[in-house]
Design brief:
There is one protein chain. By secondary structure, the chain is an alpha+beta fold. The protein folds into 2 domains: about 1-165, no CATH class; about 215-320 and about 360-380, Immunoglobulin-like, CATH 2.60.40. It is built from 15 helices and 16 strands.
Length: about 375
Amino acid sequence: MLQIALVCSAFLLVCSLASLVKGGADYWSLPIPAQGPPPAETIELVADLSAPACGICHVQQFADWQESWHARSVSPGLLGQLDQLDGGTVLSCLACHAPREEAAARWWTEGLKGGAGLAPVDCTACHVRAHIRYGPRARSFTPHGPVIAESRFRKSDFCAPCHQFSEKAPRFNGKPLQDTYAEWRRSRYAKLDISCQACHMPGGRHRMSGIHDPELTRRALGLSARRTAAGLEVHLGNQGAGHALPTYVTPRLVVTLAGITPEGMVEPLLNHVIARQMEWSEETGWRELADTRLLPDQWQTLTLALPAERRARVKVQVDPGYDYHQRVYPALLHRWAGVLEPAARDLLEQARLEGVAASYTLIELECGVWSGQEQECVSVQGF
């Protein structure tokens, strides 16, 4: 079915996800079992498991989380699809986008009208089970009772349940669509015990930054360019990400090498795409068209021939939601044109436009004419 094939979450096989064991039960059993009623002596504020309630005391963590994509996991793109999906696929999507069991119950009861109220990947999703709090450090006394230490809060396998498709998931050229944890396991970062949290939650901050964040992406992508006698030579590589850059099928980076005419016009002459490019059709299903992503510590060189008197420019454009706004959302809007509720259609269109708007310029360098010796290209003002 096209509906299932276009929804990446359909390949998330919840029953076989990695488990974090605590007290004989799977900590990461997805969906997260309903919390149930709080203990009778629980004060009202502590009984409220919403992120804003947690933020009253955990001010910095809440402020960071609000900036994160975890806070936006119940997105217009997700909500706009759910009405058209079968029940199993809906549960699969919600298991990571709105992982608390209460969210699924609300969806079945209220549908799209209650969609905005579904809890995303919030404080409770990671820290609370049956009203018991867990964290990286033990606390014997807090307003919500003791906090139980769980060492995996500092380890990469804490992130794996939603950032790694299972071994049973379909594979294309030997890889599932989501392979982030396995990519990390194969890298030197795992050998050095540099966890996901070290880069995405430095110092315990809760922004969970990713490819939408230019600062983090600049640390991940290494790039240098120089003017040579032959033209332009660009070295680029994955210098800081412990997984493929980018790790998923949705984003892409485009490195453009351009000449600058004597009149100052920029002429793009070479576009190098860094992405895992997938295609789906009803006849053939999924197919990988190309995988030009950069694995950890992988480097490559791009060259562009130029006349000696020609200046040049190098630009890196990052499009975090490329596959969604270019392929997925337009295909869904077309396929479901006659059956989508207006509210769902508006959500998918909103998601498409937000995806387009999320694109940003990461790096822009300018290179001079050939001066008789090689010269490094310099950053354009503002980058």
